[in-house]
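Holo prediction — pyridoxal-5'-phosphate.
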Amino acid sequence: MTSPLLHLDQAHVWHPFHQAKLSPSPIPIIKAEGLYLYDENGKTYMDLMSSWWVMIHGHSHPVLAEAIAEQARTLAHVMFANFTHKPAVDLAQAITSRLPSLFTRVFFSDNGSNAVEIALKMAHQYFYNQGDRTRNRFVALEGGYHGDTFGAMSVGKTSGYYTPFHHFLFQVDFFPYPETWMDDTQIDEKEAAALAHSEAFFKAHGQETIALIMEPFMQGASGMRLCRPSFINALMEQAQAHGVLIIFDEVMTGFGRTGTLFAAEQLPSPPDFICLSKGLTGGILPLALTVCTDEIYNAFASIQSAKTFLHGHTFTANPIGCAAALASLALFEEQHYLEKIKDMEQIHREGLDKIRQYSFVKHPRVCGAIAAWTFTDPRIPAAFTAACLQRGLFLRPLGTSAYLMPPYIITPEQLTTVYNDLCAILDDLSKTLSGLDTETNTETNTDTTCSPPDLFI
Ligand SMILES: *Cc1c(COP(=O)(O)O)cnc(C)c1O
């Protein structure tokens, strides 16, 4: 029996990354609290991916709810061209004060894709404003995902999502991405090869290159692909030697996911731009920031109006969003999340030690609050997800990779229980799989290897 809500949904709503004829129907959710989502029939699901990586404090946090209610009663919105307001100023101050001192400026927008577009445009105009017309290309890392608008798609072209649009995307060069995992014995060779490639590129084209954009340490949407900070550092040194700007897309990695407030902190030298969004408001409102250095800003500050950065969104610096971000940042620090994330990382490691025992699991990897692994058999992710849902655990694998990115409020006991439940699910799956392997006709199964939903975020 279809619920009336689902019936209307199916008549009128178009969901993101959803293939109507293949994807499972969306589940009507009527409320959410803490770690849990509640559906129409009273079933609960533990949200182990923080609702697309945003809900760092869990759902419906009363402190955040109060902060936005209060702001809505005081100043819900005002256009940000002629006006300014305390929530935006306080947030800009709060974020820049937590970054190296050369980061002084914050440009507001409302989603991660826009934060990236803004960084790309600023980087280009930075050189343009100085009369430099030779720099006209961007570089990115293979597999990087930066959002779904055209500039973001161009630098994320190799993430696998944009085939119908390839002919519209501007030209970007991509560097190999030496992804790694626990007990990876080849990593030194992979990194050396990648760095030789980028070095040769910069030798030939460094002076023509505007910026290098990357997701530091963990590529999210292309499958939670990890690399070593020392590699990122070496790559940045190459780029910076040629005057190439560095854009860190920390839309996913920001706000503790890699074990520090921002991934950039783990490196000896900072990038030129940092893009933030997902965890910024604790997941309750859309808001994004492009943070840049004084050096960048000064190339725009001028008595020549032609040097203006002519970019803005209607809801730039929405006060309610800013109030949520300020409350979220205060909670983050009051609750000592960075310490909790250390404990979480330890439990992830212990959990993965169990999960990696299954013959169909490879490449276990952990980075701060994120744990991931890859299934060797493409038939598994869909069955695994369905079994998890049935047990009340919400996960959404990316291709053949599964991952856990829980809200930081999860307790060590709860997370340990999750791993035990996952092992029970994998036990069942191994039985089903050995049954499948003995069947003579597996043709229908091999068909699903590259079915589009397997690739979806
Ligand atoms: C999600 C994401 C984006 C896009 O953000 P939206 O808010 O979905 O537009 C960009 N970069 C990274 C690394 C992301 O994870």
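READOUT: The two ends are 28 Å apart (CA to CA).
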